[in-house]
Design a protein that fits this description.
Helix content is 23%, strand content 28%. It is built from 19 helices and 41 strands. Strand 8, helix 4 and strand 9 (204-208) form a beta-alpha-beta unit. Helix 8 packs across helix 11 (370-387). The termini are far apart. 52% of the residues are buried.
Amino acid sequence: MIVFKPFAKRAAQAFASAGASVAVLAFASAGFAATPTLTLTPAPAQATMGQGSFALTAKTRIFVAKGDVEARVVAGQLSDMLFKARGLKPAVVEGAPPAGEAAIVLARGQAASDKPEAYRLEIAPTGVTITAAKRAGLFYGAVSVWQLAVTDEAKEPADLPAVSIDDAPRFAWRGFMLDSARHFQSVDTIKSILDAMAAHKLNTLHWHLVDDQGWRLEIKKYPKLTSEGAWRVPAGAAGKDPKTGKPIRYGGFYTQDQVRELVAYAAARGITVVPEIEMPGHALAPLVAYPQFGMTKAPPREHMGDWGVFPYLYKPSDETFGFLNDVLDEVMDLFPSPYIHVGGDEAVKDQWKASPEVQAQIQALGVKDEHGLQSWFIQRAEKHINSRGRRMIGWDEILEGGLAPNATVMSWRGIDGAVAAASQGHDAVLAPDSTLYMDRRQSASADEPPGRIKIVSLKDVYDFDAAPAALTEAQRAHILGLQANSFTEHMRTDERLEKMTFPRLIAVAENGWTPEASRNWASFAARLPAESARLDVLGVAHDTVPYEPQATLRPADGGQVSVVLASGLGLGEIRYTTDGKAPTKASNLYEAPLAVAPGKTVRARTFLGDAALGRVRDYPVSLIAAQTRNSHQLELCGDGINLSLEDDAPVSGPRAVFAVNLMNPCWVWKGADLSTGLKLTARIGQVPFNFQIGADREKIPLRAPATPDGELEVRIDGCGGERIAALPLGAAARGPALGMVSGVLPKRDGVHDLCLSFTARSVEPTLVLDQVALTSIKTKN
């Protein structure tokens, strides 16, 4: 029997914190409802509420027709899912339920739609019936029953609301891309992600197994791909044992047996795993292992710890294609997916341009230029993939120089690639980096995991238009669907990967499943307490920071502190206390900035209807806290490579996270009152500049230091303004730990913006601010 991975250990805590109820919202609701009626996510295509409810108890049985093996497997999955979530394990029985028995029945029959994933669900006080023509429909009907049963774990029976549902997906491709090349995830974590995908009717895992930073798939014919290409030394302090000074290797790979196990695990949950083997670029890791297939004799292993766009390409030779075809053959033996992804993106052509041999090949082939050569390269790969009865898919750069005849395009640079492909009669999948890349932060809070500074909120993902207006109706038929992409440069741990992905992947699921006319942000948001409970039951970490009250503390009159509370998504209402008690729905409603005496603690929580959403947040109030800003609360100088960047030390344990524009590392404190003398105290760190950005590295401004370790410079009224202080850094700049630097700022009339930057002879390492405090010289804090 195939079951969901065990996920019950956090259930009781989850339900206590989420306060979820089956009655959360009617899908047609135009606003947030206190007592809505259905919590299914994604919202079904059609749902009509009935009267009463079905009581799911330990005695409930699930019936399937005799000899229907697929239905029996699904029934077993549903039984196991209910047991893990609720402690209820319905028996599975072949045949029809006796007259008068209130049971769950899985039946074969045509749903309202003829799509293979369509199902009909009827819930009444007298029983539950899931009807579908295909196994996939039966499974998704079972998932809907499971979702409705995941409420207050302590309550029995579980009351499923009476409802009639006819459901089918909007798009055929509803996916998630997992990058295991930049950071490696455990098999158990991938299974947890597959569980969460299946529980929300996502059906495609695009598995990014190869990149410059690592090769993650065992290939029997080429063992050095994993013995050499699967391991790297991280940049900076993270790559050196602090006790011995010896290099620390990072990496790992999936054996072919593990891959077969994961592919089968996914298939049992209606998920197809699409492997990606990058070509002709993003190839440093395999070329470190087998340099004869590349353009350089000794590709630099040390660069495998870098991020960015690398120049290392495969050589477009017969020998290279012999290697790639061998690899693709083993890949296709492992993955039965109809699609094989070949990458094709960000292939910097400098090595091809500089090679007389390649230039002669361009002339001999009669292609226009290096882009035409890449098109020839991709088309040659496609021929081999097609010869095995599979279809090729690649990133939208495969359009350049001419699209391969049967290729499908995955559009990541906006939607233009999908529009171009569909206009040429090719299928496309939408995965634009502007909205569906999970390495973007979910709110402005410094509590968010590290990643790109740009905020892509849950609502941004939900509002994404997966049916571009630029296409005709006929062209829209070529849009297979959409997927979210988790590139993991900044997702060093499995938990961080999950928090960056969820709950935004749930918004992708609804975007891909629910008809456009039935989608409604207010409806989706009102279901979030129930969704949080389900993710907790599944054992999947998810980001609650955008729901939670974030506090901004500033000095106020009379020695008090002004406390402003706001959440990233602005959902629901904020309740707070100052007496040490945990806030409840009956606590004070936050409506305006609070004036709080130092020494108190503001405790705050968001409530959506009657349900708590996110954690209780505690904010100790002090003058020094009101006079301190972290790097995320300062303004960055310009829009370059703006990151919420994790420190490289310590090797194990929590690390600081800095907001920085790597192309211009400076920060602005807005509105500093310099009319009295101020002491500036800064906590600083150092990060390795392990970014492959080519000639752009020379554009980063450097100011010559006056002291051996450099200075923190302070300018007023713009970063080109008067320098009013230069604080020597000394040992604080040497790292790898955080260091402190302080000094006095001279008086100036009025309020000024302060620009803070470092002097340095090189970008390696890059000095960064962690936090800054401006305190009055006259006042003890």
